[in-house]
Design goal:
Layout lengths: L1 H30 L11 H4 L2 H4 L4 H14 L14 H11 L14 E2 L8 E2 L2 H9 L4 H41 L3 H15 L12 H14 L15 H12 L2 H4 L6 H16 L2
Antiparallel strand pairs: 1-2
Helix pairs in contact: 8-9, 10-12
Length: about 280
């Protein structure tokens, strides 16, 4: 019985040791795969945080490949506020294309004649400001193009407004003067050119009230140094109406026996046409 118990005890001990060994091996195998690629590295690399942060050899290889792509490329250091900020900014913007001096932009004054504008945009002072602001040539070109287009667009809008004002004034005066419109405009133009040249190009020349005053001047002074009175016998509707009523109340119009009756009747007919002219 003793021998039997000894044999059973021995077998039990052996089984227990094998079980513990198996459990220990399983525990090691459960944790080792994640970092197993590090086992073949020198201890100095294996313990380096820049190396052991990778979970696999593939991850390490990928990181090295990406790093290699950056080698040889220009590096840009972002300036930080401090003692060397301006110098760092100059270095950065120089790398981006900023010239050393304002003359380095090679700017020329912008002539707007091709756009139908009799003007030139000077750029000398702008180039100095651009260099002080550390602008690149591309930025300078973009700003100048925007400024140029803005001037051209504003000029086009201004011309359109002027044309609208001129057309409105013409319609108003043509309706008022009727058949006498062309003659009155010619008389007003003569006075304006000879005596108001400094007003050329101002909005005043498109003002119907100002034109009326010029026409009145031409009529008041007749063929004087101020200008010429309207020619051709044409009258405005208002003037024609007043003259018509004057003639119709005269004896020459009311009496068929008057020797000037037929002549006055013809004048009244002509004045009616001028009165109705638009």
């Amino acid at each position: 019985m003793v021998e039997t118990n000894d044999t059973e005890t021995t077998e039990t001990i052996i089984d227990t040791q094998e079980t513990e060994t198996t459990e220990t091996t399983d525990a090691v195998d459960a944790t080792s795969p994640a970092n197993s690629f590090l086992d073949g590295l020198d201890a100095s690399y294996r313990n380096d945080p820049n190396i052991n942060k990778f979970e696999s050899g593939d991850a390490l290889a990928k990181g090295y490949t990406e790093l290699s792509k950056m080698l040889g490329q220009d590096k840009v250091v972002l300036p930080k506020e401090g003692e060397n900020y301006d110098a760092q900014m100059d270095e950065l913007m120089t790398k981006l294309g900023m010239p050393e001096t304002a003359e380095g932009y090679n700017l020329q004054d912008i002539d707007l004649k091709e756009q139908g504008i009799d003007a030139v945009i000077p750029v000398g002072e702008f180039s100095k400001v651009a260099r002080d602001l550390r602008m690149t040539p591309a930025q300078v070109e973009g700003v100048l193009n925007f400024y140029k287009e803005d001037i051209v667009n504003n000029n086009a809008q201004s011309n359109e407004q002027v044309n609208d004002a001129v057309n409105t004034a013409k319609v108003e005066l043509r309706k008022e003067y009727g058949a006498a419109y062309e003659a009155n405009m010619q008389a007003a133009s003569g006075i304006f050119k000879n005596h108001f040249p400094s007003l050329e190009g101002t909005d005043l020349v498109n003002n119907p009230g100002f034109v009326r005053d010029l026409v009145k001047l031409s009529k008041s002074f007749g063929e004087t140094k101020l200008g010429e009175a309207p020619k051709g016998g044409a009258m405005s509707p208002a003037d024609a109406s007043a003259e018509k009523l004057k003639l119709m109340n005269s004896p020459a119009y009311t009496s068929q026996l008057d020797p000037e009756h037929d002549s006055v009747v013809e004048k009244v007919r002509a004045l009616r046409e001028m009165e109705m002219a638009v």
